Amino acid sequence: MNSSVAINKMPLAAAAIYPNSLAKGEPKIDYIYSRSLNIMMLRGESKSHAHTASTYHNVINQAQNHLNDPEKERIRIYVGFESFNTDSYSYFIELFEILNLFHKKGKDIKIYWSYKHSKKMCDAGVYLLPFCDFPFEIVDT
User: Cα 13 to the chain's mean position, in Å?
Assistant: First the structure.
């Protein structure tokens, strides 16, 4: 696959609007979508909870809707989880399969995978990299 991997700092445009902290309590995924900025952001704890499946389905549907819009030629997806379990991989593989189809149609897609000095989260990004035909950067934030 033609994915590129680079370990960098998160782009300043994303860092400026990325929330600095999550509310304490039950594990959750914070999901932000900005149509005007062509970005999606996911962070928090991706674990097997009832809302996790619906959140990922919303992310996948929103990405499809965004990229199906002829006026939208690109999307940037910023991912920064504190924890990530094996169930989460299947959702990302499903998302990447859809993004690969849009990439083949000429859409400009890029993922920034943030691992916040966590070897486990860095390794999760490295594991997912082969499933991408589009640029995928692993970033230390």
Answer: 16
132-139: average pLDDT: 96
For 98-120, the pLDDT digits (tens) are: 999 999 999 999 999 998 888 99
- Rounded Cα distance between 127 and 7, Å, is 14
Q: Are strands 29-34 and 108-114 parallel, antiparallel or unpaired?
A: unpaired
Instruction: At 92, list the tokens.
Output: 């990302």
Q: What is the pLDDT of residues 57-101, one digit of tens each?
A: 999 999 999 999 999 999 999 999 988 888 889 999 999 999 999
Specify the DSSP element, H or E, that contains 53: helix 50-68
Show Cβ contacts of residue 97 under 8 Å, excluding neighbours closer than 6 positions.
131
Task: Return the domain boundaries, the chain.
Answer: 37-132
Closest CA to 66 of 26, 108, 27: 108
The predicted structure's pLDDT at residue 28: 72
Q: Which overall architecture, per CATH, does domain 37-132 show? A: 2-Layer Sandwich (3.30)
Match 């965004």 to its residue by tokens. 66
